[in-house]
Fold:
Amino acid sequence: MSTAVKAVKKRRQREPEFDKVSWKKDIKRNWVLYIIFIPAAVYFIVFHYLPMFGIIMAFEDFKVSKGFFGSEWVGFKNFMELFSGETFSLVMRNTIAMAVLNLTIGFICPIVLALILSETKVVKFRRVASVFSYIPYFVAAMVVAQLAKEFLAKDGAITLLLSFLGLEKQNWLANSNIPVFWIINLCIDIWVGAGFGSKIYVASISTVSGDLHEAAAIDGAGRWRRLVSITLPGILPIIVMMFTLKIGLVFVTGFDKILLMYMPTTYETADVLSTYTYRMAFGGTPNYGLSAASGLFQSVVGTILLFISNWLNKKATNQSLF
Amino acid sequence: MKTKKLLTFLISAIMLSAFLSGCANEQSEQPTQTQEGEQAQQTEDITPKEIITEDFSVWIFVGEDSSYYADYKENPSVQYITSKTWGTDDKGNDVKINLDFIVPIAGSETDNYNTLLATGDYPEMMQVVSSAPVTELYEEGIALDITYYIENYMPNYMAFLEANPHLAKTATNAVDGEAKYIQLYSYHDQVEDSWCGFSYRRDWIIKYGVNPIDGSAFSGAYALTNEDGSANMDSWEDNVVFPSGGPDPIYISDWEWMLEIFARAIEDQNITDGYCMGLQYQGYNNFGDLVSAFGGGGTGWYKTPENKIQYGYISDDFRVYLQCMNTWYANGWIDTAFPEHASDLFFSVDEAKIRQGKVGLWYGMVPLIEGRLDSGEGLLDGIVVFNARQPINDIYGTEAQQNKEPYMMFQGSLETTAYFITDKAKDKNLEALFTMLDYMYSTEGSVISQFGLNKEQNEVVNSELYERYDLIEGAYYEVETSEGVKYEQVDAVKYEGGSLGNAIRPGRLPSLAANSLEAKMNPESYVNNIKQWTWYLNTGNLAASFTSQVSSEDAQLISKVQSNVMEYNSKNIPDFIKGTKDPFNDSDWQNYVGAINKYEPEVVTKIYQDLLDQLK
Structure:
């Protein structure tokens, strides 16, 4: 149990009225905080909560000219159309496969990078490596996709490197065998996100008390032992928080990159829920209902996963996001 | 402490007000042009018989290159048109029209169009986008019935339609049980020169081919020189003869003869990553190019010369096309990576290799023809590119697919874009607006639409663009021809290299472009090359004015069938060409036809056929 939680419990025992402060009193006491909160609240309401009204499109045969209130209400028809699509099962398989890879290997990489960076004693090297590792995060998806196309083309640099290792010289992005595209997508995700993702772990590692390391070192613990027994447990709450956050978005992220990299010959292994919906919805006349249904489906699945992950984390590590 | 709290309060208040001000409608803070117009009108009330301005905002799908101007309002021709008066108001004042253009950000055109319509924040005039059929917009009260204005204030437009009854049939829409004008179409008075089509390496034919009749070698050179002594890259002349006996490829057998030569050239020059012929990624051109060689028609729904609607994808003609492509692929003539070019534009597939001189035959554009690619170095040394017309099949399939002239391909038609007037304009001076729009269909307006402004017209507006590009003497000049006076753009426009020609024309407004008045003063070789791309006319295509006649429900159904078929084909057609599936095998073909028929394209065929029969 953390020190803060213990303190709150103690205060509750000491001051029974602690939890019973009315809104009125609280606003009076902390009015400055409430004023500071107003812009953020307005922002979230205007840009995040009000647009949620658009969810209604998922249950309508939405027509631009008729708007939200004039379009015909069709219930779950859009969802039925989404789920009954010919390649829906393949698309779900690809989505889940890429999500699992991202949640395992893709999630671990920033932590490993952070641990390596924090263990590096040469400060200059650490700083340079840190900067270079997070620069790809700021490269636009379009550029990332183009770079991938260039490097993985038949005469691309990575292809040539792989051919030296005995692999066939080919355009790897046109290879529809499992799990070629999944691995390419994972590698790109790691390249783009690992450096930036590691920053929060590096910051977290720096908060782990040096006294603990010193005491462990005096007791004969080596670097590996200290890493496993002190650093990792020290940043565990952050790891849990990041994992929980990531799992909620795992079905959504990567859409633009995949859309830019896949091609009809690789639909079978590269098509994910978001790209599949994009083609179904915008292949001809825009089908906003279907698009909204897919978006809602992804959000609902993401939210369920978020709660499950939070619950599992609480059970397993006694740490949770909420 | 109190000061700190006060400071915090102030900062928060500033942040909130700044945030909220960002959400405010700018128009509410500043007088709009309409309000200014109203103010002006009030002033006119005191002093009648003056000029008042009526404001209209126009949504256009795309503007012009920002290197010319940022606001389409700065288009010299638009400036000229809006500088004139167009009738009077009910007080007898002369009326000028002021146009404000709304141009969406590139890439989000349809989104912007839909958002404007869905939020009700749309302007008075809009270009039609297929995402919201105009018939549907009319039913919802957004698009106005403009029949009265067209019939009474657009005599030039009506005269053009009367002279072209086939266009007049689809210029109206069946709404409220009768034919009404709810769209205003832009037209060309003649099919304009195409800017893209098939091109091939003429120099490879000269170097690696021999006369198929007498076995003699070919030779060629540029016939004209420029003032500086350099060769005129538009004047190539040679003695090339194709197996069909003429200087241009006409039949599929001519193409095969050509492809064999290209294969030899690629081998001789040791081009390891080149190929004889490029192909669009799904294995065919959606517009019907080359597919049309095998029976005349195209891919999706098209109209036969007998006025029958056909669905190309499951026709025997398309099967024969696939058999030909399968054979060519097996011969090693087609780019093996063609299915990988999914993100390339149809007119610039794998353009890097073309520009490197590694491709024999491709679908190209004007800037690549004749000697334009000749850099004098490496594979590009001495390159000469000629255009090829659509071929005619004389080898594959049966009589039904042989010796039929193509009638479907990418080609400009007489009809271009359409516009509609929204209910936001119903209280405005539409008489003046339509009078102005009709000017664009007059002879003078058509010339402006095609060539821009002449010297006198430019003097009215003193265009900055004309000054910048030294067009003070006008954008075109007159030429006496056997067919009477025609016009030719000045070299500064013709050879500018960008899109100056578009930037000086009012091409984003409804108009009739006078293509027939273009003198075409280029060298004979260039003219002949351009002519190849419009050798056959695209009569099979279902024009937008025709497809826009269907109900919104039918439009949605058609779109769905089309999307499903395209999705299926994008994966399966490359298999037929690459040989994974065999187009010569009946079982493979029937399986394909069965899969396509699942999407019920015949329902759409019937919708279009009924519509076509109604319009007869």
